[in-house]
Amino acid sequence: EPTIYFKDYFDEGDWTTRWINSESKSDFGKFELTAGKFFNDAEKDKGLQTSQDARFYAASASFESFSNKGKTLVVQFSVKHEQNIDCGGGYVKLFPATHVYTLVVKPDNTYEVLIDNTVAQSGSLEDDWDFLPAKEIKDPMDGEWEAPMIDNPEYKGEWEPKQIDNPDYSGKWVHPMIANPEYEADDELYAYSDFGVIGLDLWQVKSGTIFDNFLITDDVAHAKSECEEILSTTVKGE
Questions:
Q1: Are 50 and 36 in contact, with CB atoms under 8 Å apart?
Q2: What is the tens place of the pLDDT at every residue in 115-128?
Q3: Which domain of life is it from (predicted)?
Q4: CATH code 2.60.120.200 region(s) in the chain
Q5: Contact predicate 35/63, CB 8 Å
Q6: Degrees (nearest 5) of the Cα angle 5, 9, 14?
């Protein structure tokens, strides 16, 4: 059975109870629920549409936090540009869930950083930060001796050798490659410990884009089946 972490096709209930239109800036554009100018089904094809030109947009929906470690992650959604778009976003972002961060600074000059009451970092203020100058520095009075320089009375200018073809020339030098000692393979580049929010955070010069059919799952076959249904009904009907 596929695990459905998040699904919203905007076909039931009040979407504003699930999504938040950001009001952190007064000039943010507003998303509106509509099927747009052309559609297959006026109700089923409704999605979030950008409604004002030359605006930033920000809206988000939360879901139960999860990690995709050891699992396949599939993020799927549909985008319909009804306008003649020339500059504007058509993407989504995934964010971590809300966490509580705690900083503890102690009189012995040590500190702790906790995330959700679990210590994530600790150490010494003096050792870990540049609050104080270094205890030791290189002696500025000591160093390599340099002989004093005087003008050469016989100097006639910089010598320039004559140029001839190099019989040993074998082409432009190519820097040889060696193994990078700092490289470490990471089998978990794909893994993220905490997904909890999906968001639309974008800019559009010309509004009119409709976002719909959001799906986050661990099953490629299920996402493919959902996609085929959208293509055979909504897209074909348009």
A1: no
A2: 888 999 999 999 99
A3: Eukaryota
A4: 4-98+194-237
A5: no
A6: 100
Could you tell me the sign of the dihedral formed by the alpha carbons of 139, 140, 146, 148, in that order? Answer: negative
Regions in the chain scoring below 70 on pLDDT: none
Q: Is 102 left (phi over 0), alpha (psi -120 to 50) or beta?
A: beta
Q: Is the dihedral angle over the CA atoms 71, 79, 38, 6 positive or is it negative?
A: positive
Would you state the pLDDT for residue 227? Answer: 93
Helix (H), strand (E), coil (C) string for 68-89: CCCCCCEEEEEEEECCCCCCEC
The dotted CATH code for 4-98+194-237 is 2.60.120.200
pLDDT given at position 25: 84
